[in-house]
Amino acid sequence: MSNNELNKSIGNIDPETVARWLESSGNYKVLRRIQMRDTFGGQINCPVKVLVVDTETTGLDFATCEVIEVGAVLIEVDQDTGAIGAVLGTYGGLEEPKVPITPENSAIHGITNDMVKGQRFDEAALKTLCDEAALFVAHNAAFDKPFMLRRFPWLEKSIWACTFRELPWTQENYSGRKLEYLLSDCGYFHGAHRAVEDCNALVHVLAQPLKTSQRMPFQVLFDSANESIYQIAALKAPFEKKDFLKSKGFRWNADDRVWEFEAVGFSEGKEVIEWLREQVYCTTGKIMLGFRIQAGVDRYSGTALKQQFKEV
Fold first, then answer.
1. Last residue of a domain, which of 224, 256, 278?
2. How far is CA 175 from CA 31, 180, 183, 211, in A?
3. How far apart are CA 201 and CA 212, in angstroms?
4. How many of the other CB atoms lie within 10 Å of CB of 51?
5. How far apart are CA 279 and CA 267, in angstroms?
6. What is the reported pTM?
7. How many CB atoms lie within 10 A of CB 55?
């Protein structure tokens, strides 16, 4: 059968019906392209307004690089069930940076100098959405929030949660923490790597129960958003333990020459301390560690906090 004959024979068949039929065989997994939606259908009895945010920038260093695109989707979430209801508003905008976008940077997000030429963010429209939000959510808040604070200082009192860091994707048996992996596990795919598109994609992921526990993601985020973040420094950790520390999730701080771990909440912090005591320092006694604590508006702000030293 030719392609033309095949197209004619199936032209009147609903694609969703075909997708479900393929999935029912057990031999196929069908991914659906995400769409912009007015609602995600959740019943809302105790509403919380949440702003999902994503940025595209000219580089990685928020102190020297610039935001060139902001995407934001304001949604209504039930405080108790974590269900997502209506989409209350969206914002997407570009801004021309002071320094031209490099070709290497354009290759990442697809934004060119021609696209941003003469563009400025509609700050009033964005602020209207931000003023309604009780919580800001990003898939990498440690990246997005400092850039947003530098460009929009009036966000200094905003509380942020991070879906990459604060949701237990590994324990819930997802393929990975990257948005593309999460989308695929949820049965979706999306197009260009752009800010509003990424916000919409993240909302689709957050609208589904977690794979193993069946908790709604926002039930976890609403709890973790109230927790402090403990940056734990493994002082004078033995050199031979470096691969062990890295596998646990510690990162090397080249400036302070120390391995560090960010724990969300007291429970995770306590677990990491006990792991260090037993597996790295190999002792049952007290150990000396360094701590930086971020709470409330300081979470993910990029602010340099003074390190405290404590025997635990």
1. 224
2. 15, 10, 10, 11
3. 21
4. 25
5. 18
6. 0.90
7. 23
My answer on whether 64 and 197 are in the same domain is yes
293's tokens: 């604590």
CA distance 260 to 248: 11
Domain with 168 in it: 33-224
Cβ pair 55, 69 in contact under 8 A: yes
CB atoms within 10 A of CB 225: 21
| Tens-place pLDDT, residues 253-275 | 999 999 999 999 999 999 999 99
Q: How far apart are CA 67 and CA 81, in angstroms?
A: 34
Q: Is 255 found in the same domain as 302?
A: yes
- Please check the confidence at residue 1 and state whether its pLDDT lies above 60: no
**What distance in Å separates the CA atoms of residue 80 and residue 75, rounded to the nearest whole number?**
15
Compute and round to an integer the Cα radius of gyration of the chain. 22
Q: Each residue of 208-220: pLDDT tens digit? A: 999 999 999 999 9
- Confirm if 161 and 141 have CB atoms less than 8 A apart: yes
Give residue 4's pLDDT band: very low, low, confident or very high (50, 70, 90): low
- Say if residues 81 and 219 touch (Cβ distance below 8 Å): yes
pLDDT for 306 equals 87
> Could you tell me which residues come within 8 angstroms of residue 201 by beta carbon, excluding any fewer than 6 positions away?
34, 179, 183, 188, 190
